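Practice problem: predict the structure.
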Amino acid sequence: MAAALTILLTSARVAPGLLSWQAWAALSAAARVLASAEHPQAESLAEAGVAVQLVAAPAYCGDPAEHAALARFLAGAATADPGGPVVWLAPAGSDATPELLGALVGAGLDVQVMHGSRDLPGAHLLDVVEVMDTLRTSCPWDRRQTHASLAPHLLEEPYEALEALENGDDHALREELGDVLLQVVFHARIAAERPREDGGYDIDDIADTLVAKLVRRHPHVFADVSVSSAEDVNRNWDEIKKAERAGKDPDGHPSVFDGVVFSQPALSLAAQLLRRAERAGFPAGDRPASDESLGDQLLELAARARVAGLDPETELRAAARRLVGRVRDWELRQA
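Answer:
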């Protein structure tokens, strides 16, 4: 009868000891439990009464050249004492590749793969925080950055992501969104170095604030408010934001323009101001005459885009790209 070996896979991002019921059952029934001395689960299992045998197994990083050596090691460990099944705690975060499983079966083992813990969605964000901590303490460039020095990137990175989106390049968009995320994590890491009484905060505070805002602004999802359309959601959203602005205004005179960022590109600003004014009930006919200035004419174009259901910034960017195409065609004809 073939020796039984269970490969127990665990996540490095889940707290040690938080294992599935099947994993605990397999560990309790095992004749031998093998793990490396640095495995994050080893100490927790020992504290729970599971006898863990610390071994120096051959390296396993998914390299095909390592499969045969590791298979021989595990086969020897599984057959050395036929007193029952053997559980091997694979390096945290690793997987049982088809090549490794094939080598183990070829060595005469009855192999079972079991997941003791899995990453939850978003768990890899912990890696981002950890890497950022390391960079902040170990990289001379990252160590000397401030909120002010990083400010240009808060504008540049989203535009690079937008360009990837406009180009239809999903791979580039994925990468650029990572750069946008880096800005959030970087600023949070810098802020975490300040004491709380001096306005310090960390990435968890940012996440808590965001979650609270999303829950507060979606009562139709998280409370008992009923909606029948996306328009209802927009109306609720406006009322909620209006109440929030009223709570922030010390004079009790909130404006529909409270919270508008005036440093954004002019066309985007104009579109947002017009949208807010319309939602507040401001008469559309009270806009300045279009011949007063070039700026007024541009504002009128933004208003026309609003009526047509278009975003003026997007339309202008599309027109700019068409111009680039025409100029490049012209350049090729001149060559």
